[in-house]
Amino acid sequence: MTGNAKLLYRIPPLVIAFLSLLFGMLAGLSRLGWFTDLFELNLSPIHGPLMVAGFLGIVISLERAVAMDRPWSYSVPLIKAIGLIFFLTGVSSAVGSFLFVIGAAGLVLILGVFLYRQPALFSVILVLGALMLLIGNLFFYFGYPIHIFVFWWLAFLVFTIAGERLELSRLIRISGEAQVLFAAGILIFIIGLFYTHRLIGIAMVFISLWLLRYDVASRTLRHAGLPRFIAVCLLSGNIWLGIGGILTFFYGDMGAGPYYDAYLHSVLLGFVFAMIFGHAPIIFPAILGINIPFRIRFYIHLSLLQISLVLRLAGDFLGLSSIMQWGGLINAITLLLFLGNTASAAISVKLFSGEK
């Protein structure tokens, strides 16, 4: 398959994924009370599905499809993208959510093939993560309230990111005992899904501490440029995962309100998006075949993520809704700045290097 043909498989799902991100951000702002009069379409109830089943589900599936690089593998993110169109346009939310299920099953299949090719603990964790997405999407398809199954979606993201970091930890040859500890954290999380949020909180803290101790990021922090930026992103994200775990332990039984907002966004913004910020200069070039050089200004959106999230959580716990609202608005501005900084870095290479 030629490079141009590959892009035909890759670009449409990625464009739709970013549309899902933008609409998901609008939905989140609407939930916080921003811009409620600007749109006739009520997006606020579908904020979570747009961000997790939509944006993150498509991007992660596309990343895995690119790694496999077989025509059939690209159908997985495409199915999810088509489902998002059905869901977002209101043509048929049932068809859209059903296609989310099919797409998640496809991701399980892709990762199952990788597991068959390379049997290893990290491969098992990645398959488990995809299974968590599949189960969460099934809950969503059958109409369960999101707070009932949101931890299944969190498991998908935590397992996927942690599994990928475990894969990279082979570079420093971690011990068998360390791998057993990692597996124990994953097992505690899974047990918690069936029994209590407190075990889920303990598992997230456990995995956070494991990553802080064993992740290769603690070593690449000494390097300059992109390796250091990635390391700072990962280390900050791991800290937010631990904070999210502590909050989940105490407040994970709450399905609405400020504490619910606090523990969810500690993980979904603090952990997940810090990882996206760090990996974007690697993932997007692999998908699009373009160069995204590191720029020192990348630290601006990373810093704003930390500041805005602290502001948001302060509003949550102090009962100051206006502070929480402003924190949420700056969260959204941060994501837009991330997109702008990343795109401008790529465009600058095209302009000044004469790439075609």
Structure explained in plain terms:
The chain has 13 helices and no strands. By secondary structure, the protein is mainly alpha-helical. The chain has a domain at 1-114. Helix 6 crosses helix 11 (258-288) and helix 12 (298-318) packs antiparallel against helix 13 (321-353). The longest helix is centred in the C-terminal third of the chain and has 33 residues, at 321-353. The radius of gyration is 19 Å and the shape is globular.
Q: How are the secondary structure elements laid out?
A:
Blueprint: H1 3-31, H2 47-68, H3 75-89, H4 93-117, H5 121-141, H6 146-168, H7 176-194, H8 197-214, H9 217-220, H10 226-251, H11 258-288, H12 298-318, H13 321-353
Would you summarize the structure shown here?
81% of the residues lie in helices and 0% in strands.
Q: What fraction, in percent, of the residue positions are helical?
A: over 70%
State the major sheet: none
For the record, give the distance between the C-alpha atoms at the N and C termini, rounded to a whole number.
Answer: 19 Å
Name the shape in a single word: globular
**How many strand elements?**
0
Q: Could you spell the SSE succession in H and E letters?
A: HHHHHHHHHHHHH
